């Protein structure tokens, strides 16, 4: 086992130590570099915006002098591109995901409430049989903590092998954070089993409701037509040349359904209206929760859920071009999506939302990358 020299910060020590626990499936003969060193180099390169194999290789060659002085290598040379590719293709991405999630969870800032937004996305470039009906591609389900911007859990999987709802439920069951937790999800995850798992873990929940749950949906429609309003809040916002109005109506949850939806206390209707590209629009969305909060607070939580789209999925597809990536072989696409999620959590430190600018600051500056990994609020 080899560790970085100059390694005095406990967070970095724990990360490298934990990376070293991942099984190395490579043959012992001819193995020149420890798995943890190769993975660490991949993490550094992706922090500064590396999108694929060649950009990872360029990062290593461009920063060879610093890296060779910083890493206690067995021989005075760095891993080759072929070594990096081989490691990314064969490493156990589930073990890597667990190591990274555990490390980031331990390094989370102390908060009274952790708002964990859960959602899945596909990686389009991995799609097999693109024009056929029997498609298979890699999907990834992520848990994004809204206040810190950290991905606290990520599970990549093949869409034909698992259903997102089951993956989501397993992730909730394994999640462990040092405080109160609110799980948010879209209508796909508004399932009675998911709600029961949240209740068994002591987590609060806030889920969108659509007609895939017809009885629940109809009960909220009936409540919205009644006069039994618990609270109301309205806000207007001008952004990017348009004005959007949001109204939230808060109602008590139906007594007839409380036996089916564990601990559910309130339902709500959010109405969004405004003008976009010269056209008026109005949309209504339904939600349920087991929390007791004001309408204003619930609206804030609902808006927080969109951060997983805006700060995680969008950055993966735009700054890392994940959806267009041609990396398809073996474990590589799943391994890389895990590392990208980890990198974005680190790049969001200090409340930073300008990810592209932060990547440019780190370009070819591995010392800054190490400092970023060491930094904790």
Outline the fold blueprint.
Blueprint: H1 10-19, H2 35-47, H3 53-62, H4 64-70, H5 81-90, H6 93-106, E1 113-122, E2 138-145, E3 150-158, H7 164-174, E4 180-185, H8 192-201, E5 204-209, H9 214-224, E6 229-239, E7 242-252, E8 266-276, E9 279-289, H10 295-305, H11 307-318, H12 332-347, H13 355-362, H14 366-374
Parallel strand pairs: 1-4, 4-5
Antiparallel strand pairs: 1-2, 2-3, 5-9, 6-7, 7-8, 8-9
Helix pairs in contact: 1-6, 2-3, 2-5, 2-12, 5-12, 6-12, 7-8, 11-12
Characterize the structure shown.
- It is a single chain.
- The protein contains 14 helices and nine strands.
- The chain has a nine-stranded mixed β-sheet with strand order 3-2-1-4-5-9-8-7-6, sandwiched between helices.
- Helix 8 (192-201) links the parallel strand 4 and strand 5 (204-209).
- The protein folds into two domains: 10-91 and 329-374, no CATH class; 97-315, Alpha-Beta Complex (Transposase Inhibitor Protein From Tn5, Chain A, domain 1).
- It is α+β, with helices and mostly antiparallel strands and 377 residues long.
């Amino acid at each position: 086992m080899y560790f970085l020299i100059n390694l005095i910060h406990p967070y970095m020590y724990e990360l490298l130590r934990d990376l070293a626990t991942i099984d190395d499936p490579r043959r012992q003969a001819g193995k020149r570099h420890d798995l943890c060193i190769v993975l660490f180099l991949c993490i550094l390169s992706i922090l500064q915006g590396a999108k694929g194999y060649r950009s990872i290789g360029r990062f290593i060659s461009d920063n060879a002098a610093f890296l060779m002085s910083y890493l206690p290598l067995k021989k005075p040379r760095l891993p080759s591109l072929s070594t990096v590719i081989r490691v990314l293709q064969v490493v156990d991405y589930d073990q890597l995901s667990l190591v990274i999630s555990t490390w980031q969870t331990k390094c989370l800032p102390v908060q009274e409430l952790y708002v964990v937004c859960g959602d899945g996305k596909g990686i389009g470039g991995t799609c097999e049989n693109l024009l056929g009906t029997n498609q298979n591609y890699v999907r990834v389900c992520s848990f994004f903590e809204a206040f810190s911007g950290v991905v606290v859990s990520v599970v990549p999987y093949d869409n034909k092998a698992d259903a997102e709802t089951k993956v989501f439920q397993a992730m909730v069951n394994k999640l462990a954070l040092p405080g109160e937790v609110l799980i948010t999800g879209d209508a796909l995850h508004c399932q009675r089993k998911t709600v029961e798992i949240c209740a068994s873990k002591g987590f609060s929940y806030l889920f969108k409701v659509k007609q895939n749950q017809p009885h629940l949906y109809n009960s909220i429609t009936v409540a919205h037509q009644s006069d039994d309003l618990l609270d109301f809040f309205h806000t207007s916002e001008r952004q990017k040349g348009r004005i959007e109005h949001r109204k939230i109506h808060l109602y008590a949850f139906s007594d007839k359904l409380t036996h089916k939806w564990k601990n559910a206390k309130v339902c709500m209707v959010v109405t969004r209206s405004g003008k976009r590209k010269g056209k008026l629009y109005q949309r209504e969305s339904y939600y349920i929760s087991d929390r007791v909060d004001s309408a204003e607070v619930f609206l804030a939580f609902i808006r927080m859920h969109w951060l997983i789209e805006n700060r995680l999925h969008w950055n993966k597809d735009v700054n890392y071009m994940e959806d267009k990536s041609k990396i398809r072989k073996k474990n590589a696409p799943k391994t890389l999506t895990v590392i990208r999620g980890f990198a974005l959590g680190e790049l969001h430190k200090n409340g930073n939302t300008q990810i592209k600018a932060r990547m440019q600051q780190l370009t070819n500056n591995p010392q800054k990358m190490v400092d970023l990994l060491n930094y904790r609020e």
